[in-house]
Amino acid sequence: MNFWLHIFVLCLPLVYCSTVRNVHLIDPIPYMIKLITETMIRMEDEGWWNLKIPDVSEDVNVEVVEEIINGTVWFKNGFVVSIRQVAIVQHTLGQVWRYNSAENTTTVEITGTMRMNDVTLGFDVEASLTNGVQHYTSEIVLPEIAYDMRVIRDMFTDRIDVSITPSFSRTITNRMKILPATNVADIFASLFVLDFVAPGVNSWTSEFLHPFAKDLVENVLVYPTICYDCPA
Question: Out of 2.40.50, 3.15.10, 3.30.750, 3.80.10, which CATH number does the structure's domain 26-222 have?
Answer without folding.
Answer: 3.15.10
